[in-house]
Amino acid sequence: MVKKIVVLGGGHAHLLILSNLNKFRERGCRVSVVQPSPYHYYSGMGPGLLAGSYNPSEIRFFTQKMVQNQGGEFCLDKAETIDPIKRTVELQSGQILEYDLLSCNVGSFVPMEIVNPGAKDVFSVKPIVSLLQARERVRQLLLQGNPHLAVVGGGPAALEIAAGLRALTRAYPGTPARITIFAGHLFLSRFQERLREIAEQTMHSLDIAVIEGAYAKQVDTKKIVLNNGLVYKPDLCMLATGVRPSLLFQTSGLPTGLDQGLLVNKYLQSVTYPEIFGGGDCISFQPQSLDRVGVHAVRQNPVLLNNLLAKVKNITLKPFRPQKKYMLIFNTGDQKGILVRGKLVLSGKWVFKLKDRIDRNFMKRFQIPE
Fold it and tell me: What pTM value is reported for the model?
C-alpha cells in the first residue's frame, strides 16, 4: 500500500502533481515535496526576464505555498542521493525521507568545466534565477560605460540570451554595448538552413556579432580563449553551452542513459525500480531520444499525475507518447520572434505576441498569489 510519496522538484513536468496533491491525500498518502527554493522559475520566459520584459513574480510558481495550501510537506532542501533498495532520499541537510513512490523532476545544469574556479562576471543560463543576477550586473556595467558582453554557445539559448541582452542595453542611453556570440563550429548547427538564415539576419539587425569556426576552450574573468588560440576580453560572459541532466541518478547508482539522465520506460518509470518515476530534463527516455525542450516536460504532466495515482490505486499505467512534430518559438528580444515547426519557419512581431500569450496562459494555469 502506498503511504509515503516524495516529489523532487517543482518543474514543468510536476505542475499537475503539485496542483492535485489533494487527490493523493484523500487516499491517505503523505506527500513531501523537495525543492532548494520556494519558487520554480519558468525557463520559457527566462530570456524575457533577462531583457527586463518580465518581473520575477511574472515567471515563477510559488511551489512552497502551492504544496502547503494542500496540506503537503514542503522541504526547502536538495536531494543528495537516492537509495532505491531502502527507498529513501537523503537531503543536503542530512534529513532522510522514506518513500513508497518517488517522482523526480530535478532538471538539468550547464556544465562549467571550461570556467576557471573563482572567475567573476560569468553567468550560466541555468538556474533561471541566475539571469536575474546577470541582469543586475549588466545594468551596473552599462552605467560605467559601454561594455562588451559575450554569450558562449551556438544553440537557441544563445540566440535568445544575446537578443535579451540587446533589449536590456537599449533601455540605456548612449552607444549600445558590444555583444558577441561565440557559437562554436556553426551557429544553430542542428537546425535547417532557413532558420539559420533568419537568425543570422536577426542578429545582424540587432548589431550582435556571431563568431563561428572555433569553440571556447577557457573562460575566466574578462577573458575567453578559443581553441584556435584567439583571445577575447569581454566584461561579462553568459554560458549557454547546452545542458546535462542532474547528476543525482549517476551519484545514486541508478540506471541512467548515455547522458546520465534517469533511464525510464514508456510509462516514465525507472527501468529497474518501478516505484521511481521522472520527467523533464533529468530523464533519458528509453523508447527514443528526446530533445530537451519544454514541450515534452509539459506533455509529461498528465502522464506523471495519472501514473502516480494509478500506483496508489493499483491500476494500469498510461504511456507517454512524445509529439513527432512540435512548435518552437524563439524570443528575439525586439518584440519579435522566430517560429519553427517542421520545415515551417516564420518570424515577426505576431510571433512574439503568440509566444507571450502562450507563456502567460501557462503561468496563469498554475500560478497562485504570492
Answer: 0.93
